[in-house]
Hints:
By secondary structure, this protein is α+β, with helices and mostly antiparallel strands. It has helices at residues 43-51, 94-101, 114-158, 163-183, 201-217, 222-233, 244-248, 254-260, 263-274, 279-287, 306-321, 333-342, 350-360, 427-433, and strands at residues 9-10, 21-24, 37-39, 58-60, 184-191, 368-371, 376-381, 390-393, 405-407, 416-420, 441-447.
Amino acid sequence: MWNQTEKPVPIDPSQVVVGLYVWLDVSWNEHPFLCNRFKVGNAGQIAAIQACQVAGKLYYFPDRSATLPLPLTGSAVPTGKPEDRDVVAEARDPQDAAACAGRADDPSGEVATSERCAEVAREKQLKEERRRRQQEVAARAERAWECAARVTREAMIQMPHSPKQAGAKLLGLSEDIASRIAQGQEVALRLIGDKGDEGPQFHALNVMTLSVLLGRAAGLDEGQLAELALGTLAHDIGKAQIPAHVLKTRNRSRYEEDLYRRHGAYGVELAAVSGAFAPSALAVIADHHEYLDGNGWPTGKRNPGLAARIGALVNRYDRLCAPESPDRDALMPTAALARLFRVESARFDQRLLSMLIKLLGVYPPGTIVRLSDESHGLVVAPGKDSLRPTVLVYNPEFAKQDAPTVDLAEVDELKVEEALQPASVPPSILHWLKPRERLSYFFSSETK
Length: 448
């Protein structure tokens, strides 16, 4: 865990060895690394540090380091706070440390050659270009989410009194989303940025997004995906007929529970009047609380159709992460998946549950993680390798929306060490990461 009181010790670039946890007290764009603070992992990183203009701005943290710096040689003198300048550590094993440093055979003692400096400049440029591309992809997904959220909210408000118009809006949105996901060469689930609104469109879009991505993995064609999208978008429209206090109550009376359990039937009535819903979409609305073990409701059906099975599974996952009642605790994504797998798996289609776990990855979007360089981050997208997601890395130099993300599949030397509970994360880092109690998902895609 990050020690807020730990004192950084100034060192000279010539003292850097593998295993030091260093801090480059310069702007993010003045070096080629993903973070300003990291544990040095190889000789290439040492050479890059020594090629950067960090003399007098380089520190290490003793408690987070696996070794000690090399002793000072020649005229090199670390600079920093005056009271720290007498702190000069000796290497535990100078011979081994020198080998780790990976110094070039240069009679003049110069490590940062002009060639290496040019390489570092190229790496810095590539790093900034990657950040810009990442921001563009995230911004496109955010804009698409905002458009979909607006249409969904308008349709939900409109459905009770103008079901045909509302149904047409939802049908158009569903067909568009299904087309983009079905035809996308690369489709990635993404965590959407912080939102102030807490309307029902959050849950509807989450369930729709995960369901259509799961349906694509299950082999549904574009038309079937469109029906699935429509049913999952509208799966809770019947709740417009239920009093708000009944929806939010954790411990309902028998009468209130019976009323609550009618929202599927109310939704089917509204959807049928709209004329926009195919039978499989209506089945999602009717059966999204039915379970394969017969313990679901409203009828205890054991054999709901594929679209309804997908909707039921995804609806349950999102409600574990974002309960309807404010009196229930929200689970972190990893804990929600673990509960589905270990406690509730009999309720669901095992093939679909395995696909959902693969889709979300070992570290689903919204998971706080500690990386192998000791930095903290927030998973924003699962990767092709479930162990190597895309992570927004904590960097207080940036506002959260401008900070770089790291696709761990592209960075061999970096990996997730563990998923963290918010309570174990330092408050300053948690405040910057801002993991939402209500997670919002959408997708980004590249067409063929």
